[in-house]
Amino acid sequence: MAELAERWGAPYRWLVTLAAMIGTIATILSATIVNVALPQVMGAFGIGQDHAQLISTAFLAAVTGTMLLNGWLVDTFGCRLTYAAAILMFVVGSVISGSAPNEGVLIAGRVLQGAAAGMVQPLGMQIIFQVFPAEKRGSAMGLFAVGVVLAPALGPTLGGVIVDGFGWRAVFFMGVPFALLGLALGLVFMPGPARDGVRRRFDGPGFALLVTALLALLTGLASGQREGWESDRVVMELGLAAVAGVGFVLWELRTDAPMLNPRLFAVRGFACSAAVGLVYGAGLFGSTYLIPLFVQTIQGFSPTRAGLLLMPAGLAMVVVFPIAGRLADRFTPPAPITAGLLLFGVSMWLMSGVGTDTPFWTFAIWILIGRVGFGLAMPSMNAGGLRALPAKWVGQGSGAINFARQFGGAMGVNLLSIHLERRTQFHGQALTATQEGGAATRELLREVERLLAGNGIDEVTRQAMAQDYLGQMIFSQASMLAFRDTFLLVVITCLAALVPVAIMRWGGAK
């Protein structure tokens, strides 16, 4: 790095930061841009929510798995080779996703995209700490954070425009031009491996156990609704996830070069911050999955309009983050975290009353309230957790908090999708039972048949079409009620996260 800085002079630090930022933006775009395309993907492949949610969770789970590899990759191969390999993997994953003939290939492409994102995202912070002096790191991190936050803020909107203009496949190619530009800059400005220093040993067994646990868990949860929760396949998959998860923890306690040091979670302040991070990830990624799905399937929004709904909230986070960073320096962590969780809880509680006629700007303001809460909580959550650790564990702690947030996101999308499907079935059965022999139902069917008869449709077809129309009405109402229940579940989860915050307060978090 010293040689590169001498060759390029004073602008070098900004050029290498720009290279890292462009690659990070490209990968983060792919995390959120696909959400507005999910209804179209479901229609194209004829799949339900149990498969569609894997398009999001596969990406998040892959990020979770490879994020912990970043330190070893950089120590062994250097920033340049790690970055270039990750970007090329991302491009390949994007091409596979965009040209996928079925949902299985699409999910495989999303895994490649997520694995690349997990390797790229931590690089920006590492680069900034290496090239900027301490007194200028704040400005550099502020600029980097704006770019990183703008990507998910604008991603759904750009995705909506692309889906309406070019079809759902085009959204998977959106990040490719940015990735290739980042690759070109990275090959020029990223440093290679250090010529001296101790190389970190690769934790192969730990990585294998972690990947096995994540894959078996997410596959088992996705199969549960379709195969039955007591089926042999689901029991085997969830059992394998439990065994691999326990094995991972035991191995990480035993090895001298752990990917994720479980001893970090014995520090009360850090464990509480990680618990809040788990809920943070579940709420952020879960709501970003649910909201576009609701407004497109229930309210009939176009993909562009669904993306625009999320944009004010995303832009608000850009404004809130710098303010929240200063609050994190002035107040102990529990205060901003509590305020943030309460704001997000209020936002989700308001959404639990959403209906087919909820106005666009009303919904947008509800979302904005929740995102302001997230913006307030995140800096204090990270800072509070790292302050509780001994200096020698701070680097590992930063990776562990990111791991908790990403794992929470993967689990949040998966579990909320399962809850949504189960509640849709529950409400559908309950509503169907109320239609038997009802005078209003008979009158509706007669009116529909009368209208169809006016178009010359025969009696048998009229009756079938009227029953089908009634079934669609019941399903639509059941889906709306299920979305309300799911938003309410997020509220309950958010309130549960106040328990570790209270423990932080009682423990005298600094």
Automatic annotation (TrEMBL):
GO cellular component entries: plasma membrane
Cross-referenced Pfam families: MFS_1 (PF07690)
Transmembrane portions of the chain: 12-34, 54-74, 81-101, 107-129, 141-162, 168-190, 202-222, 234-253, 265-286, 306-325, 337-354, 360-378, 487-507
Membrane topology value: Multi-pass membrane protein
Keyword tags: Cell membrane, Membrane, Transmembrane, Transmembrane helix, Transport
Keyword Cell membrane carried by entry: yes
Keyword Transmembrane: yes
GO molecular function annotations of the record: transmembrane transporter activity
Localization of this protein: Cell membrane
Stretches assigned to the Major facilitator superfamily (MFS) profile domain: 16-509
Family membership noted in the UniProt record: Belongs to the major facilitator superfamily. EmrB family.
Name of this protein: DHA2 family efflux MFS transporter permease subunit
Provenance organism: Neoroseomonas soli
